[in-house]
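Final report, closing paragraph on structural work. Over the funding period we assembled a curated collection of sequence-structure pairs, and we close with a single example.
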Amino acid sequence: MNQNKTDIDYLQKSEVYAMRMRPVFRSDGLFSDETENYVSPMEPEAGDKVTIRFRSLKNNIDYVYWISGARRLLMDFEKTEGDFDYYKIEVVMGEEILHYYFEVRVGKIHCFYNKMGVSKDLQDYYAFAIAPGFKTPKWAKGAVMYQILVDRFRNGDPTNTVEDREYYYIGDTAVHIKDWNQCPASNMEIREFYGGDLQGVLDKLDYLQELGVDVIYFNPIFVSPSNHKYDIQDYDYVDPHYGKIVNDGGQVLPEGCSDNSQATKYIQRVTDKENLEASNQLLITLIQEAHSRGMKVILDGVFNHCGSFNKWLDRERIYEKQEGYEKGAYISADSPYRSFFKFNNEHEWPYNPFYDGWWGHETLPKLAYEDSPKLYEYIMEVARKWVSPPFNADGWRLDVAADLGFSSEYNHRFWKEFRKVVKEANPDAIILAEHYGDAGSWLRGDEWDTVMNYDAFMEPLTWFFTGMEKHSDFYREDLLGNHESFIGAMNHHMSNFLAPSLQTAMNELSNHDHSRFLTRTNHKAGRVHVLGSDAAGEDVDKSVMREAIVMQMTWPGAPTLYYGDEAGVVGFTDPDNRRTYPWGQEDQELIDFYRRMIQIHKKYDVLTHGSLKFLECCHNSISYARFSDREQIVVAFNNGSEPMELTLSVWQAGIPGGSSLVRLMLSSSEGFTEEPETYRCENGQICLELPAKAAIVLKRQKNFTCLSEPAEV
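Its predicted structure, as stored:
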């Protein structure tokens, strides 16, 4: 949270006292964090010697102590550089996570420094932490990711599209939507298919590469009856409707029929081994093509539950009469898969419907790992298989990862083993989990690498820029432009991350579970079945969207685009957020802005690995610096409807008086520009006048000599 008023009063009184005794004590000059600027090496092994640094204004403090548990050690003065003194201490890493904080002494006063900054009271919860042996992939730190819901991205192969009445699922038969630009239906659209497939992604790799994408994250692509595919039918194969159908045949269901044992076309498509192997081969080809362009591919792992169509259960009797498949647990009490599920009535076979479903959904059978070593081994083999040759995927995104298992103890044990299996198969693979709330107990270096960053990115950013809840379910005017709420939420939730996790966190504006960010800018609260599809695109504010993009590309973590966000796609929460990519109808100006901000993000190392420090903030305005000893960038926002004058204390980022900063980007309600403009730093401060709905990115110039010379950036 923010420093409370008591802390601030204490520090102000302390500073007055110190001023009588010596030069003014500036608590805002104190700084340390867990980046490589202040922890070296940042990702040490047990037994490594680690140098930990702390910064203060030059000649401004007497002592600084490093405190870890019962150890309280005086830090050594290391150097003076610019306006700052640096202190250091060397410690040898043990086997356990190292927690520490700092105590600063100035005359007769003292304060503490931890992840939340300066406080007069010790707050152990916010201590810095280093986990020995914990590394996240170098390629993932700050990587630009692109999330694709395959059915809605591009139809590259018309021969593999789901046909009308191909099978029956949750109350009706499957539907092929012929109009690519038609909005999804308002209810139960999971059985509506537009025909997007992996060939469509292959066809557009040039586009993704030109946009600046480093990583493709696929929503599930394995055999499944829904368009979202979070109800896996076969973990061993890519769905031929996304891949290749080389052997087609059979019939769709007769009109009015709901018996999937008669869905012979569907059965042939998803059980024929040639179709399945050809589909797997297409994924191999796609990943090879991505790798040849320097891009990575992350797959979606749904391991908490499967689907009622799953071959282990076979509630729909898809596999019952197919050669090469064992009887499903729904079919027979003697099924080799009976232990994979928790049955609540042991006397109902054949066709036992009494199994546990996730959140009670019979279409999402809960996987019962605790009672099935065979299931555990099978899923571990799945985890290993797809990140190993010949597939060579670059990691897993884990669906509802905190829900797996029937106890917290088992959940943690499972993910510890999952990490070992994946990292042994592919040491450079990432393990990225879906999680809402504090994920700290999974982010200790031995389970997940990182998470989809709702708490420390999507939610605070959405509240500040739009005042909207992330589903567009309601609007809160008190949170629109509320800088204190934004800073408090960001600081608090970021403190739950180790540095390697924070630098790889998936920072999204939108995704398949929430409304499109552009729609949130219109402040319309509700869902598509009430408001209608057209309302999602009414009164949207692209200047606010551009503000959010600027923050996304300059904030710690991996900025992640949800397919079509860059093209101006709108939509309320699912199903409306799953509209198709508008090929031929893109917002080219927004794509261009995204491309330019991605270029800025990738050009400057400080935006992926540098420190973060808030500067002056007020209602409707946030400013911060990303900095290292080599590079400094300042970012500021005016989310108000009127111009705003700002004075920013950029000295806190190591930018001394007499320096100059050059503008890399300015976006406002009037548009955006990369035309450079130079700002002079006087007495450690710069003055800005920001137009309405504005975001500005500035970089300290190198080798500045005079204002008339061209900027070297």
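The chain is about 20% helix and 20% strand. Residues 1-6, 16-21, 704-713 have pLDDT under 50 and may be disordered. We thank the funder for supporting this effort.
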